[in-house]
């Protein structure tokens, strides 16, 4: 792809994953600027990925065609208010990866309508295995939308949502999703140990099983429910485990958990808009 100059404002965990994914994908690191208030985070980024770094957000924006806002939602207002003049002067495409901040709110903080793409990525972007949901404001041109899509496609799959509310759902599914699978892996490893396996054996078997199951679900023409059926011999061992999960209402617990994530995204939108 023709890479625009990209500035990541607040290069922490998520930006690190996207930057790492982009560089591993062959994007010229000199096209990337990363900022942070913490110099040691910037040193790490520079060492690992040879990107440009600065503690000065204004300096990074002055170079940028695309500005990725990647600070925590709770400090976004202060950061944008401080950057308002630089953003208006440069008028870049803004990609906000913050959970729960509406595009309209971001525009209010900048002080004028801007081309904004809201993106909800996830940390597997580091391995080019990310999954991102995108939403664009009417100010975003076709070329800018394509640039945002290409950028995130370099680190995984991207899907557009038509309504901004869709981003709350994406946050609950794929933004927060890696943590659900990690929790399940932790639980399986602990259960394997409780059944007598040593820690390393329980871990390796758990992780390889997660990888194998994900690859099968992605590559097979069968639905996950059918793949599950094929593992579950009538009267066998899997059936006992699945029955136990269902008696514990796993499905409704998952629904409840993901609704809580989506509700929190909506709640943040209201709290942070003030
Ligand atoms: N982590 C994830 O899996 C995902 C996160 N997101 C979103 O990504 C955003 C970032 O999350 P995450 O990476 O986890 O958070 P982090 O706290 O790891 O990253 C934010 C970074 O910004 C730095 N920072 C704080 N103030 C400023 C400032 N004024 N200028 C420049 N940098 C600053 C922070 O430094 P310090 O720590 O010293 O304050 C921190 O290193 C959030 O809005 C979140 O909603 C979206 C999808 C997934
Ligand atoms: O937990 C959070 O708020 C962020 C957004 C999605 C993943 N991490």
UniProtKB/TrEMBL annotation:
> Where in or outside the cell?
Cytoplasm
Instruction: Give the UniProt keywords, A-Z.
Output: Amino-acid biosynthesis, Cytoplasm, NADP, Oxidoreductase, Proline biosynthesis
- Entry similarity comment: Belongs to the pyrroline-5-carboxylate reductase family.
Catalyzed reaction equations: L-proline + NAD(+) = (S)-1-pyrroline-5-carboxylate + NADH + 2 H(+); L-proline + NADP(+) = (S)-1-pyrroline-5-carboxylate + NADPH + 2 H(+)
Do you know which SUPFAM superfamilies this protein is assigned to? 6-phosphogluconate dehydrogenase C-terminal domain-like (SSF48179), NAD(P)-binding Rossmann-fold domains (SSF51735)
Instruction: Supply the name of the protein.
Output: Pyrroline-5-carboxylate reductase
Asked if the keyword Zinc-finger belongs to this entry, the reply reads: no
Protein species of origin: Litoribrevibacter euphylliae
Boundaries of every Pyrroline-5-carboxylate reductase dimerisation domain copy: 164-268
């Amino acid at each position: 792809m023709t890479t625009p100059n990209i500035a990541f404002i607040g290069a922490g965990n998520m930006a690190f994953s996207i930057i790492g994914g982009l560089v591993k994908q062959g994007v010229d690191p000199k096209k990337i600027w990363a900022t942070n208030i913490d110099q040691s985070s910037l040193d790490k980024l520079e060492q690992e990925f040879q990107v440009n770094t600065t503690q000065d957000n204004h300096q990074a924006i002055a170079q940028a065609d695309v500005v990725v806002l990647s600070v925590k939602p709770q400090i976004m207002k202060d950061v944008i208010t401080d950057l308002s003049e630089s953003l208006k002067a440069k008028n870049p495409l803004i990609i906000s990866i913050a959970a729960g901040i509406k595009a309209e709110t971001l525009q209010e903080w900048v002080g004028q309508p801007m081309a904004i793409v809201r993106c909800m990525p996830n940390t597997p972007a580091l391995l080019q295995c990310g999954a991102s949901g995108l939403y664009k404001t009417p100010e975003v041109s076709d070329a800018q939308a394509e640039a945002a899509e290409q950028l995130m496609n370099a680190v995984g799959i991207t899907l557009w949502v038509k309504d901004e509310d869709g981003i709350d759902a994406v946050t609950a599914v794929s933004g927060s999703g890696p943590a659900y699978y990690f929790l399940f892996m932790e639980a399986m490893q602990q259960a394997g140990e409780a059944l007598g396996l040593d820690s390393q054996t329980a871990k390796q078997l758990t992780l390889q099983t997660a990888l194998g199951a994900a690859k099968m679900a992605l590559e097979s023409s069968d639905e996950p429910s059918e793949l599950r059926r094929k593992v579950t011999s009538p009267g066998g061992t899997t059936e006992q485990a699945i029955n136990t999960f269902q008696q514990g209402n796993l499905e409704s617990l998952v629904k409840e958990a993901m609704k809580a994530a989506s509700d929190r995204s909506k709640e943040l939108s209201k709290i942070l808009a003030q």
